[in-house]
Amino acid sequence: MSKKNQKSALISVFNKEGIDDIARKLSELNINIISTGGTEKYLNEIGIKTEMVEKLTDYPSIFGGRVKTLHPKIFGGILYKRDSNNDNDEKEKFDIPKIDFVIVDLYPFEDTVNDSKSHQEIIEKIDIGGVSLIRAAAKNFNDVVCVSSTHQYEKFIKDLNENKGDFSLEQKKDYALNAFSVSSNYDTLIAEYFKNGKLRIKKSLRYGENPHQKGYFMGNLDDVFDKLNGKELSYNNLLDIDSAVNIIAEYWNDKPTFAILKHNNACGLSTRENIYDAYEAALEGDPVSAFGGVLISNSNIDLKTSEKINNLFFEVILAPSFDETAINNLKSKKNRIILKLKSIDFSNKSVRTCLNGKLFQDKDLITDSSEDLTIVTDKKPNKSQIQDLLFASKICKHTKSNTIVLVKNSQLISSGTGQTSRVDALNQAIEKAKKFNFNLSDACMASDAFFPFPDCVEIANTAGINSIIQPGGSVRDNLSIDFCNENNISMVFTGVRHFKHWYKKH
Q: Do residue 189 and residue 83 come from a single domain?
């Protein structure tokens, strides 16, 4: 093969690990290697012949290495179209080398930020030439193979062996796809740093939802809480904490409120004059489900409350503050996770994977208030009932649909969650309340969606429930309203539906 038609590979990498195997394979295939300063030095030291970029460009690396590959001879060699007569003529006229492979490992911007380097050090680790090489090679994927990350090295060597240096168009396109992903992610990290002064950290978890699944968290938990004690947080811990933080936010400015969550749903929640009583009332809601749950408070945890809490086996407790004596008491169980909750504004968007894509939506930021209520029955709810109806509505909003929530005296009595039928949800809630010996007489009921038939209000009436909150909006609303009027039940409409078909993510 003539020198003029010989294939060439440009190698410019920060991390030298594994690049020697690639370089040796390229040499075996008589592919000329062009490299930059550090890479050229490394390859020469291990006996692999290379050609320096500076020799091709006739221009030195300048500005401390900021400018070395940014030259028409380099980018011309990557970008010219092999099937274009005009491009080939210009290539000859300007003595542009032919570059068929571009192998780049970018400056470690993310690692530099996470290692708490200085701002100037971080800025210097914003790769310019490398990203430009990647984009150029990926753009001209018809003619150039772009290897843009160390994760591709093994695959690239395998493809070289199988193809003897010749790649199909489909293979080149696959490499280009990865290249643009690398470039996009890299720019996203830089933008995030400039916006927030830090990056969301990808953290490996012990496992995912189940032990056979890998799990990761991308974000900065230090923004949300200070960890005071306990083992590493799990995937399921984080889901429960997310639900706990979102539900307690509804009561953040209320009197002392305590919530207990299990599998992302509240199994106990109460508001009282002090946090000790709030915890006791929350636990009464479902002391069985509370076992191994997540606990959260909107108020300081004192020693007396911590002593009561200590009798329960639980995974996580969160509060805005703890008395020092309370912390020491709770630390008696070394694996118990204690988190001091910070005030934080979360994103107003939610996202989840769906099929082969993602679903995005605005978060449900509406909290039902007394001003939003429309009384639709002859009997009006009294002040205490309105308070309980709104209390129940807040819980309902954060409980998996279909759901029914039963409340009495600012205490969650029970709920029916995640049922395919609203009647099933109500029956589940009633049976659960009876199991824990709650008197449903004069209790209030909340539903996350309207009643298409009067069956739910009929069942509620039989159980002793006498006040109901629901969105309204069914063409058969009058059937439920008429039954309530006939049986002296008050009912209010909010005009807002609070479906929750999946767990919220930030």
A: yes
Calpha distance 104→19 (Å, rounded): 10
In this structure, are 191 and 226 located in the same domain? no
Q: Does residue 502 belong to any structural domain of this protein? A: no
Q: Is the pTM of this model over 0.85?
A: no
Q: CA 374, CA 120: separation in Å to the nearest integer?
A: 59
How does pLDDT run across 250-292, given as a tens digit for each residue?
A: 999 999 999 999 999 999 999 999 999 999 999 999 999 999 9
Q: 384: domain range?
A: 371-493
Which residues are annotated as catalytic?
Answer: 139, 263
Tokens 């971080």 belong to 122
Tell the residue number behind the tokens 């780049």, with chain if given. 104
Within a domain: 336: yes
**C-beta neighbour count of 380 within 10 angstroms:** 11
| CB-CB neighbours of 269 under 10 Å | 30
CATH code, 412: 3.40.140.20
Per DSSP bridges, beta strands 32-35 and 51-52 are parallel
- For the stretch 417-443, pLDDT in tens is 999 999 999 999 999 999 999 999 999
Whole-angstrom Cα distance, residue 222 to residue 226?
Answer: 6
Which residue in the block uniquely carries the two structure tokens 């063409």? 475
